[in-house]
Amino acid sequence: MGVSRKKALAYADTLMERPRSGLELELRRGRTGVTLLHQGRAVTRCYNTRVGLAQAQHMAAALGVDMPALGQSVRATVPNGTFFRVIAISALPLDLPEAQPLLERYLEEAVMARSLGEALET
Predict the structure, then answer these.
(1) Is the pLDDT of residue 117 over 70?
(2) How far apart, in Å, are the Cα atoms of 112 and each of 52, 66, 105?
(3) Helices 50-63 and 80-90: crossing angle, nearest 10°?
(4) Which of 6, 46, 67, 102 is the most exposed place for a label (fewest CB within 10 A)?
């Protein structure tokens, strides 16, 4: 049995406490949903539902990667600003129309944070 979403988000909170320009993450798609991991530990989960898969798709977009195929994973290195927005996207109730403006804002900010992080690395 995997880690609960609550425990995963608690770990994500500890990662956000220490700012970094390059947080190595893995987006893994399994039978029960999509999990975002850092060093093998889950930081958030999106379940295999209509809303959960939409959250996962938008998380992948915020990370700047394609959604992995079932049983596959993709890696991304992002700054804390992007990580924060990815975690926020994973918790948005996308079945509510009120969440759409927030989603658009988080996606825009994730792209900006990624580009700022890339500029700091060079």
Answers:
(1) no
(2) 24, 18, 11
(3) 170
(4) 6
